[in-house]
Amino acid sequence: MLCKIFRIVKVTFFVKLVFFCLVNMFSSLNDFHNAVAKEAIGGVEVGESKIFQEIDFMLDSPEGALSLKDLRGNVVLLFFGFTSCADVCPISLATISHAFSYLNDDELKKSKSLFISLDPERDTLEKLKKYTGYFHPNIIGVTGTMKELGMVAEIYGVKFEKKESPDSALGYVIYHSSKIFVIDPHGDLQKTFQHNTDARLLSNQIKILLENN
Question: pTM surpassing 0.70?
Answer without folding.
Answer: yes
